[in-house]
């Protein structure tokens, strides 16, 4: 069965299905696959530090989905701008070195998930233009970064049959012992929690707080909301706050322009850079 219950985007919210959906699924199946939106720097971190904390559920394994074409993009082979077309010739042309370069991003995603003490499997979502050499490069890089395995998924072509090898790899990883842990305790100050996510998950050198963010930190601390978890609002197009920084950027500082409280949902959400909280708008909004 498939439960679709709640689906806020992981760049501006937690990016996960509801706790209720997962609790029902756990009672009905031997294995439950629950999605966390965008990369392991967005929805997956929030799944671990927010959803697992409140639900009491702990993952037995993490599956990171990667594609040859996305890794080419992170390797600088072609440019991707939301709302605009891509150079399909460059995207589909074999480029093993470009894939290897782009794997820097995937390696960081694997490292991020291993911070939580959970086994990782990489699912390579196959496209017709992918070559075996490119797939082999992803598998080699993934395993070297600490993944249990990296397996091609051809579910789009063969249905369930195309996912058997992946399912077996995930089941094998889930049977391994894990040592699940949160990235931070809730009793840390707001700034320390933000800076831990920024440096350990995004790879930032540090954090810069604008005056409004400083004011909100003081306010929420006085109000007792400083013990809530952090739900960063950041671009999904980069590990950093800047959507133009691809691959595994280094040498950057995260600007926090504001921090807001979702008291009912029980988290604080800092706004990184120019991130907006209106989801789903196309490049040219319909009202324009």
UniProtKB/TrEMBL annotation:
Coiled coil: none annotated. Pathway: One-carbon metabolism; tetrahydrofolate interconversion. It is an enzyme of class 6 (ligase). Pfam families: FTHFS. The keyword Zinc does not apply. Its EC number is 6.3.4.3. GO terms for biological process: tetrahydrofolate interconversion. InterPro entries: Formate_THF_ligase, Formate_THF_ligase_CS, P-loop_NTPase. Keywords: ATP-binding, Ligase, Nucleotide-binding, One-carbon metabolism. Gene3D superfamilies: Formyltetrahydrofolate synthetase, domain 3, P-loop containing nucleotide triphosphate hydrolases. One of its GO terms (molecular function) is ATP binding. This is formate--tetrahydrofolate ligase. It comes from marine sediment metagenome.
